[in-house]
Amino acid sequence: MTVRTALLVAWVGSFSLLAGPVRAQDTVRVGITYQPGVRPGLVVLPAPGLDSIHAIIARDLDFSDRFEVIPLTQPPSGGGTAGAATLNYAFYRALGANLAVELAPATGAFIRMRLYDLAAEKIRGEVTLPLDRSGVGESRMAVHALSDEIVRLVVGQPGAAATRILFLNNDDRRIWRVDSDGAGLAPLTPAGISALSPVWSPDGGRIAYSQLSRDGSKPIVIQTLGSGTRTLLPVRATTQNITPAFSPDGKSLLFAQMSEAGVALYVVNVQDLCCVERLTGGRFAENFSPAYSPDGRRVVFVSTRAGGQQIYSMSADGTDQELLIPFDYGETGNSNAPEWSPDGTTIAFHREVRGAPQVWAFDLAGRRAKQLTSLGRNEDPSWAPDGRHLVFISDRTGRRQLFVLDTETNRSRQLMTPFSARLPAWSRPLVRAQ
To answer: Dihedral of CA 125/129/133/138: which sign?
Structure first.
């Protein structure tokens, strides 16, 4: 969908959430012109009786970094926030707003959202869908999905609000999850089981991680989130297996296996739980932290085959291995944790700079690396599905916490947890149009 041409998008069908369906009705008319790098002013109009939904959407739109969200201390005198004919366009334009979002109750349990173009003084998009007005629990994800739809109406691609982030609680060694806005903090793996390297399946219904067993082995576990069912991958007993990564179609999983001869990358068929194949060799070399390209054809990974930790790439079948991001002798140190951006143009990773890890981005077309962080120790970046934001770990506030960085504006925000965090992984959208 282009962003400069008015389109009529039929959005009749349903939103599908892991916890159940959320249906949407009506059509959406798109006609907002969006210029990359320019943040239009936006105001979320007062919504009596919908305070929780209003707060979530206003925060989501702010966190999208696509808009300058203008706080509204008071509405214009005489009201004027219910419909295109009565909206006080001049008042909101005087605040610096280009767009306005109106939320209102509709028939039954439905909520209506209207997006106004304040310059043209008309409605540019309208959606009516069922929403739990409390805005708590799993129902929050459907509200986030509405926020993402507002972003899509303006810029032509959805936001990343209806997503979650996996991470390791460094205190209890369990895998936890948190919503993209910092709410919904909850453990996912069983108590008493130590885990490492969490990763989402593409559909968001499963996670994979490395389990630390008492006999010293580290099997890869695939856990279904709905049922809690845990399945061990068919690898040799007593081996140590780390850094799993799902293929984009969810049928295969890459991982690193440790042995006395080194660390090698393997691939396994997770659909049929069979067919383990070795992809990398090299005696006494370490190969780990693989990540697929969005089309599943290439893989980036870390290898020590030439000395320090450098980032290599290869075909998904293990052929055509080559050095991608060289070790920078003298100025920076080891590189680690590469991850492909959703659009396939950039590799995020962390690299030591004067003894402290910092987040970098490598532009594949220009073959240039750019440092993105500098304050404190910053590591283990993971892309949001919008390809614009990264979550990473930083100790800039005193202990390791989750931070989100907007790679276009360099704005960052903290997702606070009551414990130290490690190894984040950002999901794809967990609510989708059908």
So the answer is: negative
Q: What count of residues does the chain have?
A: 434
**Cα–Cα distance for residue pair 321/315, rounded to 1 Å:** 7
C-alpha span between 173 and 170 (Å, rounded) = 5
Q: Among the residues of 17-174, which ranges form H helices?
A: 51-63, 89-94, 139-155
How many CB atoms sit inside 10 A of residue 398's CB?
A: 7
Q: What is the C-alpha separation between 414 and 398, in angstroms, rounded?
A: 12
Helix (H) or strand (E) holding 298: strand 298-303
Non-local CB neighbours of 222 within 8 Å, separated by 6+ positions: 201, 206, 207, 208, 230, 231, 233, 253, 270
- Going along the chain from its start, the domains and CATH numbers come out as 7-155 (3.40.50.10070), 164-433 (2.120.10.30)
β-sheet bridge partners, residue 300: 291, 313
Range with the lowest mean pLDDT among 2-6, 69-73, 374-378?
Answer: 2-6
User: What pTM was estimated for this model as a whole?
Assistant: 0.89
The predicted-structure confidence for 171-226, as pLDDT tens digits, reads as follows 999 999 999 999 999 999 999 999 999 999 999 999 999 999 888 889 999 999 99
Residues 28-87: tens digit of each pLDDT: 334 445 555 679 999 999 999 899 999 999 999 999 999 999 998 776 654 445 566 689
Find all residues with CB under 8 Å of 17, minimum gap 6, and list them.
138, 141, 142, 145, 430, 431
Rounded CA-CA distance 26/114 in Å is 12
Sheet containing strand 332-340, strands side by side: 332-340, 346-353, 356-363, 368-371
Q: Which residues contact 282 (CB under 8 A, 6 or more apart)?
A: 262, 264, 303, 305
Instruction: Starting at the earlier edge strand, list the strands of the sheet with 122-130.
Output: 68-69, 41-44, 99-105, 110-117, 122-130
